[in-house]
Amino acid sequence: MSAVEEASDEEVKQNYEVNVFGLLKVTRAVLPFMRAPKSGHIINISLVGGPTDIVGWGLYGSTKFAVEGITETMVKELAPLGIHATTVALAFLEQSF
Fold first, then answer.
1. Residue 45: helix, strand or coil by DSSP?
2. Domain assignment of residue 18, given as a range
3. Active site residue 16
4. Tally of structural domains, the chain
5. Residues 65-80: pLDDT tens digits?
6. Does 95 fall in a domain?
7. What tens digit of pLDDT does each residue of 39-74 get?
8. Which of 27, 35, 51, 60 is catalytic?
9. For residue 70, is it within any domain?
10. What is the CATH number of the domain that holds 75?
11. What angle, 0 to 180 degrees and rounded to 10, lies between the N-to-C axes of helices 58-78 and 22-35?
12. Which is nearest to 59 in space by CA: 4, 18, 19?
């Protein structure tokens, strides 16, 4: 996690490789198996506040914003095929000890 200006090009690429391109690769790999029976459900993990401005989490949040956009589009693209898509947005709870 870092401020947007502090992340190196390699850190940015790694975040997108895992959180966005990894998600796309897995999705494209499983969709053919869902098309034949015309059923299935893609569940993508995001973060509450992913598309917002959490200080120090800008790059990570931007990848989760991409996940949400991809999932929202898949909802419409896959509906005629009987396949569902959902984003689960996780929340981090702060604890005081």
1. strand
2. 4-90
3. no
4. 1
5. 899 999 999 999 999 9
6. no
7. 999 999 887 755 556 677 788 888 888 999 999 999
8. 60
9. yes
10. 3.40.50.720
11. 20
12. 4
